[in-house]
Amino acid sequence: MASKIRILDGGMSRELVRLGAELKQPEWSALALIDTPNIVRQVHEEFIAAGADVITTNSYALVPYHIGEERFAKEGRALIALSGRLAREAADAETTRSVLVAGGLPPIFGSYEPQNFDPARVQDYLSVLVEKLEPYADVWLGETLSLIAEGEAVRAATEGTNRPFWVSFTLEDADTQAAIANPKLRGGETVAEAAEWAAGSGAAALLFNCAKPEIMASAIKTASAVFAAKGVKLDLGVYANAFESNTDDGAANEALHGTRADLTGDRYTGFACDWVEAGATLVGGCCGIGASHIHSLAARLKGTSA
């Protein structure tokens, strides 16, 4: 089984801060691209050194929600291209194995904000991200999506690019026990409904991210059952966050939330083993999961000495 597992990278923001970049709202991780792009590349390199097989472009905050409409219009294309180039350079510098670059496609109208989704405007921004990341991306990753409609927007935006697309939904996790019993997206749709959509969407992988690790195995089991019933094979994946419980009621990146002291590399890897047992083949980390966690994942799940 280990040979089938691919390790994703971890969360970008805290690694940027750890290495000396400044993060503040509204720009958030986009500020590092503007002021310290060398640190962005260093984060990519450290995740690769830790064992990541896939790194995601630092394009999550390159939307008007963070950088504003005016800056997006004037500088967005150049910043998006820079995020792609930095990831591509880091991946190509690894000569011992192949590292894929995922072109990160964020929720355009804000994390954990399904009520703000605007189907009439979403392609105005997604199309720019796809255009400028396409020269650098091996796969597309629509991530931290709260609605199936957001996944469908990613499918439409990437159609015709000749790149596979992965879609990753964030899960409701305010009540962990309830979520385990009936896992739902943050927009209220069920994981089963999302899996039904993914099965017919042409997606190459369905993932779940930016929610507590405790609920992820249930989501993987639910999606796996849907795929088995429909006779389809898609990769399944997880990259959970490390947010403290009392910070989960706000938007995902409205501040630098506290992270769980108990979620060591070993404990996080223990959760990841459960996800793999449930059927996941793509495993990494989201907010608060750093290079040390990815090192633990790679060592346990792939037997590496990264």
Automatic annotation (TrEMBL):
Please give the coiled-coil regions recorded for this protein.
none
InterPro entries in alphabetical order: BHMT-like (IPR017226), HCY_dom (IPR003726), HCY_dom_sf (IPR036589)
Limits of the Hcy-binding domain: 1-301
Q: Which cofactors does this protein require?
A: Zn(2+)
What Gene3D superfamilies does the entry give?
Homocysteine-binding-like domain
Quote the record's binding site residues for Zn(2+).
210, 286-287
The alphabetical list of record keywords is: Metal-binding, Methyltransferase, Transferase, Zinc
> Which residues does UniProt assign to the signal peptide?
none
State the name under which the record lists this protein.
Answer: Homocysteine S-methyltransferase family protein
Provenance organism: Pannonibacter anstelovis
